[in-house]
Specification:
The complex is a heterodimer of chains A (305) and B (259). Chain A is built from 13 helices and no strands. Chain A has 305 residues and is mainly α. Chain A has one domain. Chain B folds into two domains: 166 residues, Rossmann fold (3-Layer(aba) Sandwich), CATH 3.40.50; 60 residues, no CATH class. Chain B contains ten helices and ten strands. Classes of the chains: A mainly alpha (305), B alpha/beta (259). At the A-B interface, helix 6, helix 7 and helix 13 of A face helix 2, helix 3, helix 4, helix 5 and helix 6 of B.
Chain lengths: 305, 259
Amino acid sequence: MIDNGLLVQMLIGALLGLSVYLPLAAGQLSLATPAFYAVGGTLAALLSTRWSALGATADGGFPVPSLLLEMALGGLLAGLLALLVGRLVLRLQGIYLAIATIALVEIVRVAILNLPFTGGAVGIFAIPQPFATAAGYLLPALALLAVAGWLCQRLERMPLGRAMAAIRDDELAARCMGIDTTRVKLSAFVLSAVLAGSTGALAAHFLNTWNARQGSFDASITTLAFVILGGSRTWLGPVVGGLLLTALPELLRPVGDVRLVLFGLVILLGPVLAPQGLITPALLERLGGWGLRSATDRKTEEAQP
Amino acid sequence: MSQPLLEVRELSRRFGGLLAVDRVSFAVQPGEIFGLIGPNGAGKTTLFNLISGVTPPSSGAVLWRGEPITGQPPHRLNRLGLARTFQNLRLFEGLSVLENVLVALQRRPRSSAAGGLLNSAGHRRAERQRLQAAWQLLEELGLTALAERQAGTLAYGDRRRLEMARALATGPSLLLLDEPAAGLNPAEKDQLCQLIGGLRQRHQLTVIIIEHHVPLLMRLCDRMAVLDFGVRIALGTPEEVRRDPQVIEAYLGTGGHAS
């Protein structure tokens, strides 16, 4: 039922969930993730099909180091875009920020649709393949997820991550405690964009074709659902949410068209039955916290006089 | 007289048709405990918001050690050494008590983001120092036993003390306390009085305190100012203020019995 292709898609879902989670961990409801995903994917699609120096072969092969380079460049470009856009949109709060970031997704989508070199509505085809089978993509996707998870885990033990949590709880109080909230929010937004951009670059190769529809308003809502269902209080929440909600429509395929109704029900009932999401800090605590407990808990025991 | 730590000059703030703070001036000397009293709606909290950069003033100036700081954002002012608490309590409710204090210890000492990601020796040392400082503050404010509790679950008096611990964690020279005794019982008010005196000693603090409870202020403050409808109607030692006929009229009510 779950083949390697679906597994890769699930990992991409988890990565995009984390990308939505990062700004949210600083209290910022940004729906811009699909825009950065589209930017990274488009860059990778263009580079690998147009720039022969990257080493695409005639039979559609592609060197793995070039893929990694593209992922880095995709993250970089998305990060730069976030740096520019973030300065403007992060002045907005709550639902207004959400609306502004949806606008960004639309602008990027329409731009990719109409730019002379992105292939219009058809998009870019025959993106060369670094791996012969879908299984090959598992490793880079897992590696990227590991890096992202490690980043989120480290953040909890760092001033930046604590500042993000403080802003989520009370932005004004955080400012009065000496936190440069503009900078912290921008950092979270840029990290989120870098992650989405790298994921996009990987996804472009995996999907073999890329077009403007990859980054749409629908994707904004889907990726937000990852976080809402999985839970936004710990980074494992969006990972689980992304994995589950990406797999679900495929797993439900045997029941036919009803599957979309069931999928909708899950998204609807999730927040009703588990308002904090499936994965909460309390749940992790109960699971015995195999190294997932926040570092302060453990370190305090050492430092306590 | 030495250079004042904080000076407020002709400070005004207008909200639409309401002049919430009307050309208020006073200066606070280093080491002083300075009281601000006045009836509800007199503009005390607005004045705190103006001083701490939360609200920009309509006119007038705020000076820090003689330098103008008017209009600077709150985090900049905090880094200069100005910390505050909030009348309506603004803790980071989802974080633990210890984490609330750690957030405020961000820059003491500073450590780089790269070091933090790689968990470098420098970062670990900085974290140890922050933890040590945090535990010390919790101890000082009697919150050690509650360190792991989520701030949102604390009792009222504990929240008030955590707000003070968090403000102190930023390493201020001036602490603005907005009604720290509100909602406390008489015994707790006594303890608070001693606590504030002790904190001033140990942290070389200057304190500006807003309080409704007049006896507490009379006991605690070196000098005080009285606000009424945004105007400073009196300034002086508690004894002077207590005898001021305008104060008796406006705040204590005609007849002149302090509560």
